[in-house]
Design a protein that fits this description.
The structure is a homodimer of 400-residue chains. The first copy, chain A, has 400 residues and is of the alpha/beta class. Chain A is built from 14 helices and 12 strands. In chain A, the strands form 3 sheets. Chain A has a 7-stranded mixed β-sheet with strand order 2-8-7-6-5-3-4, sandwiched between helices. A 3-stranded antiparallel β-sheet of chain A has the order 9-12-11. In chain A, strands 1-10 form a two-stranded parallel sheet. In chain A, strand 5, helix 8 and strand 6 form a beta-alpha-beta unit. In chain A, helix 4 packs parallel to helix 11 and helix 12 runs parallel beside helix 14. At the A-B interface, helix 1, helix 3, helix 5, helix 6 and helix 10 of A face helix 1, helix 3, helix 5, helix 6 and helix 10 of B.
């Protein structure tokens, strides 16, 4: 029988979806599952975005420019980025099929097979997938849950850099940690990128989900690094339009943008109906973001307090995104998560978390960590946490 | 300065967009350009597809399953494919980001870098791009404009097959030729695939644009080849929703589909608003297709007759898609196309064609061929052809 490619064979399956069949089986048996495992927010998309789609008067949904509809590109440059102090020209931005295409393109454009990319561990699992697809090696720079996964001393980077190192890939605020890097940390990363002439690929798709009072400090704000910074951004994430699949890649580096355009042309154009939603979303009033932010701060505080009250659980206070990593008093979070889905119920309900080992590259790390998303309303979270606490108390593999 | 990857550097730019800046420059100077160069149809999308988008009542455009919304997958399987005698189960189909992702996935899943893929020449230029991106070699099987680019004797394939050959990639009906392959030709391709255990990747995105009275014979209809056939399809192309970016990959081969799912998960999900349009499009009445078909037959006949009346021009009668390849009486179609855009006007209007050499892999082939799309209304085509004929008469590089 005709054999599939080695790449297809070895391609890692989505680790975070591994337990989904168990959740589906539980639901089939009438069990209610509280999903703390996924980053699918229940927050409404902005009305102006939905209205733009509903009131569109296209008679033919035809191709757009490979770089995206000009109204969207100009809108992003002049309405959105200018507003947050990122000054770019229209040719320095290409609309992508969400943040996913933007990350993959950034790696594909900058790295040859065999090249190394530094990434703060734990990190978004699909970085691993995209690295695999491009034949790259991710090199994990360890961080520490006890200090909230902050950027470690710069020596850790110096130690990891070899002549194969081509880029630093950073997610700020971070998935899965929710960690927000300070201006000082970003400047330190910039120094190391400048010193070794590395690309700094900055995934800032959670930029509007920051819970400090300071403005977000973007990699695009780092002085004297114009030719090295590539910004990965997501319009669909920012405006709770995840399914619209619209993002962008941004850089002052002309070579990078010219290359990105060649790849963009190969897939003809980004989805046009999503682009129409995105154009509408550009008019989202500040009150929308304020309300979303207030809601997430409430949920985060509730979740973090609830988790830290459970004996043996520790989680830091994340300052961005809508995730946190929690240390659980168990031997292995994956076994625990399975057990919860298969065997543990309170009033025929259970709670699902994501085992966090898949966010680590270093073997053995994160085995007792779980990623928890605070994307449910508080009454739901209340029950989810209560069930989690009781599950931890009764779990045979508990360590305290 | 940090250097981009070798792949990014060597990645071919879109050959068919190379002349676009010249067209833009002409338009800026007030010149009207008749676009016979692009496959952007002016045909309206089905009302039911547009209505589905306008009347959607989502409050949050959230992710779909990585394989696509279940309503869409079930609808494609039970409403569309069953209807045309392609019997598949839901897990044998994954919704892709248009035909583009489906082609790329098919190559990525089946071929290792260095593997060879047979393709009938001339072929869609992005096959080349996707082959390059995956490190593959396309091996061109020559066809002949004089017999309408039909599948050559099977010995031509036997001669081209080596131990590196992994797949045959066929486009039926074809872009850029408009050639429709007969049942016999498809069975012959099936025989060769079966004999050498090759994958047969069949790009049938123009299936609904066939101008014979026989039903389209799909690679999925070839007996005893279930494990080798991969179907590339496009919902957005079929329903004149090109910008919606919805297609699918279909195969009875479980290994292929499991691999496709891993790649699908990496990009999270196909565009959801486009999927909503596609679900609506499934209810498109047969009258819509009949009317589109009738319109294209009219345009095709007008175009082919008009072209063949020009001294020195020859084009066969294509039986599918909305393109034809025409032999022009010029030394080099690219130079001629440039000259038309830069220097030739009638009443301040000119005509743009696509030089066809980029659809050939064999050096020197197709230099006097142009791809002509018949996607304009007849009064526009009339003027476009008149200008083309006059341009050919006056062109300094003409050969007759």
């Amino acid at each position: 029988m005709a054999k599939i490619s080695t790449k297809a064979e070895l391609m890692p399956a989505s680790a975070i979806r591994k337990l989904v069949p168990l959740a589906d089986a539980a639901k089939k048996n009438g069990v209610k599952v509280y999903h703390l495992n996924i980053g699918q927010p229940d927050i409404k998309s902005p009305r102006c975005a939905l209205e733009a789609v509903k009131s569109n008067n296209l008679v033919n949904v035809s191709y757009s420019n490979s770089a995206g509809l000009i109204e969207l590109r100009e809108g992003l440059v002049n309405k959105y980025y200018k507003n947050i102090g990122i000054n770019i020209e229209v040719p320095e931005l290409i609309v992508t099929i969400a943040g996913s295409e933007s990350v993959n393109l950034s790696l594909e454009i900058t790295c040859n097979p065999g090249d190394e990319v530094l990434v703060l561990e734990p990190f978004y699992t699909n970085y691993n997938t995209f690295a695999f697809m491009n034949g790259l090696t991710l090199k994990a720079i360890p961080t520490d849950i006890r200090n909230g996964f902050q950027v470690p001393p710069i020596e850790e980077f110096e130690k990891a850099i070899t002549d194969k190192t081509k880029a630093i890939l950073v997610c700020n605020p971070g998935n899965p940690t929710g960690t927000l890097y300070s201006k000082e940390s970003m400047l330190a990363l910039g120094d190391i990128a400048r010193k070794h002439d590395l690309f700094l690929i900055s995934d800032e798709v959670y930029r509007e989900f920051c819970y400090t009072d300071e403005p977000h400090f973007s990699a695009m704000h780092i002085p004297d690094l114009e030719q090295n910074v590539i910004l990965v951004d997501s319009v669909s994430k920012r405006y709770n339009l995840c399914g619209a699949r619209i993002g962008c890649i941004v850089s002052h580096n002309k070579e990078v943008m010219a290359a990105a355009m060649k790849f963009a042309q190969a897939r003809l154009c980004p989805p046009v109906l999503g682009q129409i939603a995105a154009i509408g979303a550009l008019d989202t009033p500040q009150e929308y973001f304020d309300a979303v932010r207030e809601e997430y701060i409430k949920r985060r505080n509730y979740m973090i307090e609830g988790l830290n009250k459970i004996p043996g659980v520790f989680t830091p206070l994340p300052m961005g995104a809508f995730y946190t990593i929690a240390e659980l008093p168990v031997d292995n979070t994956e076994n625990f998560a399975r057990w919860m889905l298969e065997s543990f119920r309170i009033d025929n309900e259970t709670t699902m978390v994501t085992p966090a080992a898949s966010f680590y590259k270093t073997p053995g790390k994160g085995l007792n960590h779980a990623r928890i998303a605070y994307v449910l309303e508080i009454p739901e979270m209340e029950k989810a946490i209560r069930i989690l606490a009781e599950g931890l108390a009764q779990y045979p593999g508990r360590t305290i």
